[in-house]
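So, does this match?
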Amino acid sequence: MNLPNRITLARIFMIPLMLVFLLVDIEAAWWSYAIEIGDYSLPLNQLIAALIFIIAASTDGIDGYIARKHNLVTNLGKLLDPLADKLLVASVLIALAAMGKCDAWIAIVIIAREFAVTGLREVALLEGSVIAASNWGKAKTITQIVAISALLLNNFPFVWLNVPFDVILIWLAALITIYSGIDYFVKNKSVLNFSKM
């Protein structure tokens, strides 16, 4: 297995570790410790989960860059990379919704869009074509990662400015996600030839 695929697998294996820190209630003194600065408070376990998420999200660009630069693109990598991205975003959004930090409908919309576009790409592959990532798709990914990071960090440092940056950005991520999904289907409607179905 080559290096890019190992990095992608590492991203997948970071997901359950992140979820343990986010969702499992462990009776330990350090687990319940919180960083407090004035009105700002961030539980240590949530900070660790946020750091794991940020590291995992940052590996997405790294594995792709290495694969393209050193001609290490494989079919396994083409399958694992988008799967890892979707698992990472979906799992943390579900966790945030369970924690009451994100509206459940936002998590549902974002996850549903990922399933729909993945389905469209699969149909395109069966037809012998590849749907490349669009600029809106890339903007969607970046916005989602920044929004999720802000939610995990309890709106740091914008909490001191009384700006709900995390809420604004997750709404923006949802809107861009919806638009980018529609954009994929409109630009690739020829893939969905219903007369053949």
Remarks:
- The chain has a mean pLDDT of 89.
